[in-house]
Amino acid sequence: MASTHGIARTNRSRTDEQRQQDLDRIQKYRDLDDQIQLHVKQSNYSDPTLFHLTTKILRLNPEYYTIWNVRRRCLISGSLSKRSAGLWRSKASPSTSRSVTTKPSCAASSPSPSAATRPAPATSPSPKKAGESGTIPDEEEADPCNAGKEEEKDGDDEEADIAADTSLVQSELAFTIPLLIEFPKCYWVWGYRSFFLSLCDAILPAGAARDFWAAELALDSKMLTKDRRNFHAWSYRRFIVSALESTTTKNDGDESAKAKSMTESEFAYTYSMIKVDLSNFSAWHNRSNLALRLLDERGADDAARKKFLDQELELAREGLNVGPEDQSLWYYHQFLMDQITTTVGASSKGVGENGKEAKGLIAPNLSLADRRDFVDREVAEIKDLLEDYADAKLIYEALLEYGIAYRAMGESDADTANQDEMMAWLAKLKELDPLRRGRWDDLEKSLQA
Amino acid sequence: MAQLQNLPDELQLATEAHVKYIQNLDSRKDEYEYWLTEHLRLNGVYWGLTALYLLKKPEALPRDATIDFVLSCQHENGGFGAAPGHDAHMLYTVSAVQILALIDAFDELEKRGKGKAAVGKFIADLQNRETGTFAGDEWGEEDTRFLYGAFNALSLMGLLDLVNVDKAVNHIEACANFDGGYGLTPGAESHSGQIFTCLAALSIVGRMESVEADKLGKWLSERQLPNGGLNGRPEKQEDVCYSWWVLSSLAMINRTHWIDRNALFGFILRCQDTEKGGISDRPGNMVDVWHTLFGLTGLSLLGYPGLDEIDPVYCLPKSTTQRILGSKK
Predict the structure, then answer these.
(1) Which residues of A touch B235 (CB under 8 A)?
(2) Are residues B30 and B38 in contact, defined by beta-carbon separation less than 8 angstroms?
(3) Is A449's Cβ below 8 Å from some Cβ in B?
């Protein structure tokens, strides 16, 4: 009933057999759900049965967000060491009408300032009950309900806590991988992973946490190989990178901790993605985001910055030579041209107004003559494209765009932005792109104003 | 609208079929999919009901049963879950408020529910007081969808003063990109869905001054593809739901005329199942209530005859937002 994408409509109705199959599946699914709801009503979060039920139902339906929360509560109430669980103490039971009469589990409700005491396990460590209720045992996951349940010891078992929690995080991450691959656009799966990775940061020594994040980056790259535009994976990537950058690396015996920027390697990553697919705007976008930081970190001087602009413009143009109808390339080209035609502190919207800091530019110290040269050269190159692609409407859009920007740079006496030429490009656009006629009409009015 | 009258039958809006389709959504309990999508039930009621209002059949779903269902999803803390037994979350809380606004039932929330104040507190507590953005629930996932949802619901209840509007606005501005669009978080790629949430949030609090309307309008208008449909990002496929995200955004910056109306009408109408009702993502695909609503809102925004007018900011009928927000609208 909800959001269905890309599934062909069919007019055939189900056969009796298919209907029966559906009813059987529904029965199984609802039984699972009923069992879970029953446990939840009784706040049985520390009962390992509940945890295993969540595994089963999430495999059938990872969009069922409440179950991810139940699963987290199970871990907080049972398997995670008290030290880790304490980080989410208030969340061990949902703040809902259902929980009003129930007590949060012991792990959650008795925060002790002394991390040395751990709650008694709610159940004795029990091996998996294989074949329970005829379902497949969860072979590929370790039994997190057993993790962190070793005998109570003194304060020096922090290491054991860490080891147990680490293996628990590992097992949770492993559990979600097949789900991530099958449902790469499910917000909850991504969210669940980031929850556990953040836990790593909180409980593990920096080096160990780093390993988790690094592995996550590799997984993310794999996800982006499968779907190059998955915006979950791109967002997640930025999240991982920023975590990796803020995780300090400690050398043995060296007290100094150094955070490591990943701007260079991520910038290189966007190039590797673009090489595979020029139309990958997600990669171009990320590249535009990294450019400024890259130059700052390189300590680039004015000459290096100018050279950088040159190189990037050339990269975009190389693409345009083979794909002049590709919006991704034009948007990146436009980003670079904005860098050239915008003046820091200019009164364009969002810059200098409302006390807002002007966003930095790639090459802030270009002289007006330099900037004109850049625009002249690009406009000439783009005009050359017309020889092969006279009907590529994005070429005309770019020419008009840059013509207008050129005028706005001031002191224009050159004929790059010749009015007759502009009107001719506009006429061509109207002819090639009737869908956006209203926009061209507005543009015409502004050009004639 | 003369051209529309000349459209062939399959390009006329199959109003009756759509009404019937929505009415029957809750009678599909023998379909596995019905149970797999229980986590969207409350959203589904909002989508279906709003669609019925646009089709001018507001009575097609029983009002009392709707109120009962909505209130059965509410938790002690004021928030709503997708269905009874599902955890409270911003996404469902917003749907609940929208449904109650639509059917003029805030008084029932006071009488039989936990009251507006509790709902407002649930939402306000999800604001990140440092960055201004909002989480979806206690587990902390943040993005601009939740920020918009918070502004939408709080303003309908007259409770916007519970949150730090300035910080939230700053956060939205930090999500702006060089192409004029907005992403999920600062640094994220522009996406039509997120552009809608950011623009609508700014509209609700009257803080559109930082929007680069021309640049954004260009980007949005380029979403229309030769088949008339709209995509959500550059170099992606068209999909009926973007008829809403892109078009409502164009409406908020007064530029719906930057795309071709009739071409989009044609695309949306070709996605109808004229016999069984409902609208799909693309022609010939399975229909669902989500695409049905966003197909209809797209038609409504462009003035398709016979449909009630939709408010591009709230995704509710204009009659509803005018009743509640009065002259502010």
Answers:
(1) 229, 279-281, 326-328
(2) no
(3) no
Degrees, nearest 5: CA angle B251-B254-B259: 70
Provide, as residue numbers in chain A, all residues whose Cβ is less than 8 Å from the Cβ of B202: none
The closest of A136, A180, A133, A104 to A34, measured between CA atoms, is A133
- Residues of B in Cβ contact (< 8 Å) with A7: 285-286
> What's the total number of domains in chain B?
1
Instruction: Tell me which chain B residues have a C-beta less than 8 angstroms from the C-beta of A30.
Output: 35
Token digits of residue B165: 């509007």
Q: How many CB atoms lie within 10 A of CB A155?
A: 9
Residue with tokens 């999920």: B184
Asked if B285 and A23 come within 8 Å (Cβ–Cβ), the reply is no
CB contact under 8 A, A1 and B37: yes
Residues of B in contact with A353 (CB under 8 A): 209
> Does residue B166 sit at the A interface (CB-CB below 8 Å)?
no
Q: Are B81 and B89 in contact (CB under 8 A)?
A: yes
A354 touches chain B (CB under 8 A): yes
Question: DSSP for B130-174?
Answer: TT--BBSSTT--B-HHHHHHHHHHHHHTT-GGGS-HHHHHHHHHH
Backbone angles phi, psi at B231, to 5 degrees: -105, 175
Q: Quote the DSSP letter at residue A15.
A: P
- Predicted-complex ipTM score: 0.95
Residues 297-336 of A with CB under 8 A from B: 326-328, 331, 334-335
> What is the CB neighbour count within 10 angstroms for residue B275?
10
Residue B4, in any domain of the structure: yes
Q: Which residues pair with B142 in a beta bridge?
A: B135
Q: B49 lies in a domain? A: no
Distance from CA of A34 to the nearest CA of B (A): 10
State whether residue A390 is helix, strand or coil: coil
CB contact under 8 A, A327 and B221: no
User: Cβ–Cβ contacts within 10 Å for residue B103, how many?
Assistant: 19
Using the Cβ of A288 and the Cβ atoms of chain B, whether some distance falls under 8 Å is answered with yes
- Which chain B residue's Cα is nearest to A283? B189
DSSP, collapsed to helix, strand or coil, labels residue A329 as helix
Q: How far is CA A399 from CA A375, A380, B57, B235, B309, in A?
A: 10, 9, 50, 21, 39
Tell me if B145 is assigned to some domain: no
B57 in reach of chain A (CB within 8 A): no
> What CATH code is carried by the domain that includes residue B239?
1.50.10.20
B3 domain residue, yes or no:
yes
Among B202, B222, B261, B271, the strongest candidate for a mutation testing the A interface, having the largest count of A CBs within 10 A, is: B222
pTM score, whole prediction: 0.89
What is the pLDDT tens value at each position of chain B, 329 positions in all?
445 556 676 679 999 999 999 999 999 999 999 999 999 999 999 999 999 999 999 999 999 999 999 999 999 999 999 999 999 999 999 999 999 999 999 999 999 999 999 999 999 999 999 999 999 999 988 999 999 999 999 999 999 999 999 999 999 999 999 999 999 999 999 999 999 999 999 999 999 999 999 999 999 999 999 999 999 999 999 999 999 999 999 999 999 999 999 999 999 999 999 999 999 999 999 999 999 999 999 999 999 999 999 999 999 999 999 999 985 54
Residue of B nearest to A61 (CA): B36
Helix, strand, coil % in chain B, rounded to nearest 5: 55, 5, 40
Cα(B83)–Cα(B92) distance, rounded to whole angstroms? 9
**DSSP 8-state code for residue B156:** H
Q: B20 is in which domain, residue-wise?
A: 1-36+212-329
- DSSP bridge pairs for B231: B238
Nearest-CA distance A22 → chain B (Å) = 6
